[in-house]
TrEMBL record:
<dbReference type="GO" id="GO:0062129">
    <property type="term" value="C:chitin-based extracellular matrix"/>
</dbReference>
<feature type="signal peptide">
    <location>
        <begin position="1"/>
        <end position="16"/>
    </location>
</feature>
<dbReference type="Pfam" id="PF00379">
    <property type="entry name" value="Chitin_bind_4"/>
</dbReference>
<dbReference type="InterPro" id="IPR050468">
    <property type="entry name" value="Cuticle_Struct_Prot"/>
</dbReference>
<protein>
    <recommendedName>
        <fullName>Pupal cuticle protein edg-78e</fullName>
    </recommendedName>
</protein>
<dbReference type="InterPro" id="IPR000618">
    <property type="entry name" value="Insect_cuticle"/>
</dbReference>
<keyword id="KW-0732">Signal</keyword>
<dbReference type="GO" id="GO:0008010">
    <property type="term" value="F:structural constituent of chitin-based larval cuticle"/>
</dbReference>
<keyword id="KW-0193">Cuticle</keyword>
């Protein structure tokens, strides 16, 4: 699943106008073991670097680095396991804080559980 994500990121990077079209691969390594574990990494001359390791179909974790159009360095870390895909990075959007009235309502609901009513049968 994540290899598809990395592939898509590379396609976008290759077709983007701000990327050096003459970039070269400086380093590339790949290792796949009989037990299903793997690791790979690559680095390009235009500042893209990716490392990933995992166990096929069970776990994937890694990091990707590149530069935004304005020259800002971007770092994306991820982990994908039984809990789903969990990306992290300073460039990713974060949810706004929960409003105080919502927190108060949730606390009231927690402290006042709903009483179960008996089931009434009409026959």
């Amino acid at each position: 699943m994540f290899k598809l994500f990395v592939f898509c990121v590379l396609i976008v990077a290759i077709t983007a106008d701000h990327i050096d079209r003459d970039a070269r691969i400086l380093d590339q390594r790949s290792d796949v073991n009989p037990d299903g574990s793997y690791q790979y990494s690559y680095q390009t001359s235009n500042g893209i670097a990716v490392q990933e390791n995992g166990v096929g179909g069970h776990l994937s974790q890694g990091v990707a680095q590149w530069y935004a159009q304005d020259g800002t360095p971007i770092t994306l870390q991820w982990r994908a396991d039984e809990n789903g895909y969990q990306p992290s990075g300073d460039h990713l959007p974060t949810p706004p804080p929960v409003p105080a009235h919502v927190l108060r309502a949730l606390e009231w609901i927690r402290t006042h559980p709903q009483k179960e009513e008996p089931v009434r049968r009409f026959f």
